[in-house]
Q: What sequence folds into this?
């Protein structure tokens, strides 16, 4: 009985300290994620008075200074996050809408040639670095926001299809599915009702990681001028076009770069925390 009592006392004494230790992490996570995400989603709709255009990188201008066109950096910061966040979310959703059924079909099919036909093109795409593939696709596609969504979705599609197939393969050829086939269950009921439901935790975990990866790709593409021109209100574009005057008006580079880093780190911490909680449960 003594070990049980001591274990109970130990768990009772350690849980409050665990909660206290997690409180600073929650505060840091809220600060890192809520600030840049709030600016990105709400910033374009805030009523900010327009300032007269002055000289580029004017050190005498009110904080946070002016950009390479002489306009206020504040306006660019408030308007520049919406495109990156929406594009990354739309690209991730589009990739899963296509990759999830392809991976399920490849895992559930009883015909090997269908699996080979679906997966071999993705193996070829996986051999190319994602950034190189994105630049190749962007060089032959018109530079529009929706085209950038499609390019980022296509870059993520091979990984999603392979992960879904790998997660569903064991269940698709397990005894439960074999019994359903022998009972005459339809392919839709077997694949969607049983196999897809069994891989939902894996898909949800990968979706979080994939969203962060899409965010990196969209920011890198915007920095390189893919999908967004130099005149666009975009945090990554702001870093690119204002870096020439960083010593005269540094906030035109520091603010958008800090928001990009905070959003990426906050998303990583959020998904790490959700995955750790799921694993503990």
A:
């Amino acid at each position: 009985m003594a070990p049980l009592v001591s274990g109970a006392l130990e768990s009772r004494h350690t849980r409050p300290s665990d909660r206290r230790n997690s409180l600073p992490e929650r505060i840091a996570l809220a600060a890192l994620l809520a600030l840049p995400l709030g600016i990105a989603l709400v910033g374009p709709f805030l009523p900010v008075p327009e300032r007269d255009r002055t000289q580029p990188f004017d050190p005498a201008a009110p904080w946070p200074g002016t950009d390479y066109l002489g306009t206020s950096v504040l306006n660019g910061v408030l308007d520049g996050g919406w495109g990156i966040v929406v594009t990354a979310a739309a690209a991730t959703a589009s990739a899963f809408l296509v990759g999830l059924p392809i991976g399920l079909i490849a895992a559930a099919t009883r015909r090997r040639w269908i699996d080979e036909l679906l997966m071999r093109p993705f193996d070829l795409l996986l051999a190319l670095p994602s950034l190189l593939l994105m630049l190749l696709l962007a060089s032959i596609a018109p530079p529009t926001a929706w085209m950038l969504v499609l390019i980022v979705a296509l870059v993520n599609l091979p990984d999603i299809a392979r992960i879904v197939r790998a997660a569903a393969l064991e269940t698709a050829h397990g005894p439960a599915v074999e019994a359903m086939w022998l009972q005459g269950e339809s392919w839709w009921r077997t694949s969607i009702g049983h196999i897809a439901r069994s891989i939902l935790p894996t898909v949800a975990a990968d979706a979080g990681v994939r969203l962060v990866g899409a965010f990196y790709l969209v920011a890198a593409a915007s920095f390189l001028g893919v999908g967004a021109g130099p005149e666009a209100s975009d945090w990554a574009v702001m870093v690119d076009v204002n870096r020439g005057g960083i010593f005269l008006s540094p906030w035109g580079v520091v603010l958008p770069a800090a928001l990009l880093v905070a959003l990426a780190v906050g998303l990583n911490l959020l998904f790490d925390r959700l995955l750790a909680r799921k694993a503990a449960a």
Q: What stands out?
A: Residues 160 and 256 are 30 Å apart (CA to CA).
